[in-house]
Amino acid sequence: MSAAHELVLSDEIVSAVDAIQGEATEFLKTIVAIDSTLDKGEEEVQTTILKLLQETLGSGADVEASGAKSTQPNCFDVERIPVILDKIKDKRGFSPVDWNYDESKFNVVASYQGGSSDGSEGSNKALLLQGHVDVVPANESDGWTHPPFSPIIKDGRMYGRGSGDMKAGVVAMIYAVIALRRIGYLPRTNLTICTVIEEECTGNGALAANHTSLLPFSDTTKTAVIIPEPFNFIVNAQMGVLWFNAKITGKPCHVLQTSAGSNAIEGAFSLFAALKVLEEKYNEPSNRHAVYEGIDHPVNFNLGKIEGGNWASSVPSSCRFEARVGFWPGIKIEDVKRDIESTLNDEANKLGLGLEIAYRGFQADGAILLPDFVGGEASGKKSLQTDFVDSLQKCYKTASAGDESNAGRKLLVKPITCTCDARFYSNLYQNSDNVVVTCLGPESDSIHGVDESVSLKSFRDCMVTIALFINEWCGLEKEETQ
Amino acid sequence: MSAAHELVLSDEIVSAVDAIQGEATEFLKTIVAIDSTLDKGEEEVQTTILKLLQETLGSGADVEASGAKSTQPNCFDVERIPVILDKIKDKRGFSPVDWNYDESKFNVVASYQGGSSDGSEGSNKALLLQGHVDVVPANESDGWTHPPFSPIIKDGRMYGRGSGDMKAGVVAMIYAVIALRRIGYLPRTNLTICTVIEEECTGNGALAANHTSLLPFSDTTKTAVIIPEPFNFIVNAQMGVLWFNAKITGKPCHVLQTSAGSNAIEGAFSLFAALKVLEEKYNEPSNRHAVYEGIDHPVNFNLGKIEGGNWASSVPSSCRFEARVGFWPGIKIEDVKRDIESTLNDEANKLGLGLEIAYRGFQADGAILLPDFVGGEASGKKSLQTDFVDSLQKCYKTASAGDESNAGRKLLVKPITCTCDARFYSNLYQNSDNVVVTCLGPESDSIHGVDESVSLKSFRDCMVTIALFINEWCGLEKEETQ
């Protein structure tokens, strides 16, 4: 492929993506409008995406009705993959839950077998584009300017819960492929699109996807994985995250008998204060992982939810809180649990409080996604990781070329202080000689917060970057007319 | 009335009350089994009591069906008195609410016009026996040995929510009158039984009762009021109580952006910590009211209920708590509000938190119920209060004479560190030359707490005390056979 050809193709791709923006933005609006909080609209979003994939990339037949794989050439196989507890509960990376996995809980996979037409290429490279469809809760009463599930566009940004985290990323990765196909291009190698559930609480959706045979991994394939989470940089590491809940029992009584230590809510305050001391200990420079050098306060303990007591004039007998604990890559979850338990039990004993600790949700290892980029820059030697990052940098540079304020910007390579599904494609779970992963998505604001928004320019740039990367990594070939 | 006659009558009364214990205990069990938390079973308990009063003290006719006052002699008029917001909302002592007063919200009044048969006596003394039927919430999961609304009797105590506070007191005061009537006695003067709602949150039930013409108050009557709350002593004062709720808004965001001050739950902790400093200031000896001399920590601020956040991995944007604040008799509620507001606003401003304070529930003045007994002993001069207290002491001594461990015990006179409906009969609301009030009820344990219970021996002693007091205060006359 000559340089001239490459340039033409890039322009063609950029134009194709630009041409599809209206449609993509409309689809983004459609799925942001669905409240896909855990146990709410995950199923509806997945069904909406399944339909889109089938109509645009699949055979167009009603995959739901036929239930069978498409036999047409040049089509993605679009499937609904149930998340089945028995298949994942004993796997590494499973996070415990207290809810059921029924038929409403499924991932969507659209897979394309590239190179099958001529057999000449396609066997040694592959691409997985993955995103999650669930969102965290949003209550308008928390101060949203507009209802969180009635997306609006203002000053080049779409506002709404999940707009940034990560429905824009999901739509960008899907429409990147659609845009290519609209102008007649299909990847030369295997390409899989996967939308998963439960990234925001367990990662069990991604774990289940990993344990199907549908992902484009093999011992002879170099597979790149891009998860367009709302980080407008190349992610080289993520923190470990553990969720737990604590039930504190005091000695309930009339407020006239109030005495120190018997109030379960005040007990919860004291217990969390003890945890904050542990948080600071984790953050101490001597305990810090090298990849987080220069990052302010990477370990965060968050008291995310609390509920206790039932009457202003009764000393509360019980209080329950849910917390999220961050920890460094390389630290064992069991060690974190032991720290949490001993900290909380010591404090509870001191105060004479009853305490039950339970684990539900995240038991997510911290992970180094790009070990060759621990310092932010490549360590020197050429590798699968440097190929991957160089390609992404190149594609992003082209994608953002039209943006005067941003033109030619090199993406930073840095860690995130939270978790995401990328860990399942790190060297903790995959052979890093064959699989490389990062997150790179549109610039977003206030994710998990009020008035969450995503930049539509960045959404477009992300879509262009992915479309160009498909060309870089997989190669493209003209679809033969049927 | 000779001393010999008096002795015979006392024995007769004690026997009559003892004879009715099984029945009274059964009725207590019946109403403890009704969860009469605000907006739950207040109506059912009141209806049950109304029926009992009508059948035992009233005409026996279905007061609900007839709706008319009994015209039979020697009968109590038993009435359902609706609590109507418009009639109380501008009255002193009203506590604001955010619920409706519909037809399910009513007091029950049974009134007897004594002395009407011969006109010789009955006009210058009267007695009001009042109690509340509402209870505070109880959740079995908080550690109850038995379900809180399935009362059981064990080792001489009845266990169940409301057994002590104050259904035993209510049943004791009603069955004291029933016991007398069973042996043919009716009071010579006016006697009113009143059961009210909402003592545990507002006092608006008692306030509404005050604003009917049914209570036995007049410029020429000396009216004693006994509220058999679960205090096994004579109550000379009660604290002021103010309820408020605070809504704290932080700056919500993903936990990866956690920074000090943005977490609304942690904000609530800080705000309440600031309030605890104010609590200690209120408790300082120099600020203390004389009636609370020697009482440990009378001013209590209680964080009774909290709810905040919705996701372990989202920094909570809002948190709401409900609190109860105690304050001294003589302190103006507006001054307490100002203290609370300035304390909370200062802290919220310091932390950059949003704050809304709202008042719902108690705005209860502190009150000196027995000004002549501020030190616990009468100040010397004989008064309506000393007559009242002396009579109660005498009756209680007789009532508890059979109890070896307790025989002849003189009741303590002391203040309570909470509020109750007695304030409406204090000199804040009534002419203390004509009205005297206290609380005296059965010994109870763990009121507002887990495994609340009441001593059945003390329940009986309380019932005997009230029956004897009716004789002392009102005098008794034999009911004429129809």
Automatic annotation (TrEMBL), chains A, B:
InterPro entries: ArgE/DapE, Bact_exopeptidase_dim_dom, Peptidase_M20, Peptidase_M20_dimer, Peptidase_M20A
Domain Peptidase M20 dimerisation: 237-349
Secreted is among the record's keywords: no
A family per Pfam: M20_dimer
Keyword field: Cobalt, Hydrolase, Metal-binding, Zinc
Cofactor: Co(2+); Zn(2+)
Signal peptide extent: none
Family: Belongs to the peptidase M20A family.
Protein name as it appears in the record: Peptidase M20 dimerisation domain-containing protein
